[in-house]
């Protein structure tokens, strides 16, 4: 019998290269040939870098969408027109309060308040609660005995159900002559007993107990002199 046919190694390698180009054969190592069918998908690990990059991009997108932006925080705006007014003691004036809601979600009501109102002056916003974008009226009235001067009134709006606020200042100037008090003026060298009333700097004061040399208006809420208001 004839012996086995021996094929040179160089011929085997050439055949493997040809088979790779035609049928998808991959040379895996020296002397080893692995066949892959033409048109079959690449191994899963070949896609690993792409899959990891896509997963990272998706996670970044989800994280960005989960973080609230500053523009979603509720905010309002309160403005006054005019922002100041001058009245004679005993008269009144008005101003327009305009509002706006920048970001509100489901909140649309703004509660209005006024602070910094001195004795002898009355100030209020009507209506006291408005819808965002609506206007209200600030009414300011004075009594004839109010002490002339300049008083800053603060009009504040609060978005219902949130901590969003906005404030505007109305500068009220009261003119006129301070009324004279019919009560005797305070004298620093005179002794006063509890219940005695005096006039000092446009106000009437009542002594709570015996006192000497203590100027009304300087002893504080718990001091000897009780402020009875302008006179």
Produce the secondary structure layout.
Layout: H1 9-23, E1 25-29, E2 32-35, H2 48-66, E3 75-81, E4 84-88, E5 92-103, E6 109-115, E7 121-126, E8 129-131, E9 135-142, E10 149-159, E11 165-175, E12 191-192, E13 197-200, E14 203-207, E15 211-212, E16 225-230
Parallel strand pairs: 4-11
Antiparallel strand pairs: 1-2, 3-5, 5-9, 6-8, 6-10, 7-9, 10-11, 12-15, 13-14, 14-16
Which characteristics define this entry?
single chain, 231 residues, mainly beta, Immunoglobulin-like, Seminal Fluid Protein  PDC-109 (Domain B), five-stranded mixed β-sheet, four-stranded antiparallel β-sheet, 16 strands, 15% helix, 42% strand
Shape: elongated
- The tally of helices reads 2
**Mean pLDDT over the residues:** 77
Domain unit count: 3
């Amino acid at each position: 019998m004839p012996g086995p046919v021996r094929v040179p190694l160089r011929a085997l390698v050439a055949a493997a290269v040809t088979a790779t180009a035609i049928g998808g054969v991959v040379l895996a190592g020296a002397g080893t040939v692995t066949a892959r069918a033409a048109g079959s998908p690449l191994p899963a690990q070949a896609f690993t870098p792409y899959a990891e990059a896509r997963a990272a991009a998706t996670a970044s997108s989800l994280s960005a969408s989960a973080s609230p932006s500053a523009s979603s925080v509720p905010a309002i705006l309160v403005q006054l027109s005019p922002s100041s007014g001058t009245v004679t003691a005993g008269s009144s004036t008005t101003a327009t309060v305009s509002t706006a809601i920048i970001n509100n979600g489901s909140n649309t009501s703004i509660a209005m308040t006024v602070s910094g109102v001195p004795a002898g002056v009355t100030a209020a916003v009507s209506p006291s609660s408005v819808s965002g974008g609506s206007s209200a009226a600030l009414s300011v009235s004075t009594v004839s005995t109010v002490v002339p001067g300049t008083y800053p009134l603060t009009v504040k709006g609060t978005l219902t159900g949130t901590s969003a606020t906005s404030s505007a200042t109305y500068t009220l100037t009261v003119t006129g002559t301070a009324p004279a008090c019919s009560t005797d003026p305070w004298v620093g060298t005179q002794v006063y007993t509890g219940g005695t009333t005096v006039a000092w700097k446009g106000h009437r004061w009542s002594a709570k107990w015996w006192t000497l040399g203590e100027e009304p208006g300087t002893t504080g809420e718990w001091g000897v002199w009780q402020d009875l208001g302008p006179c």
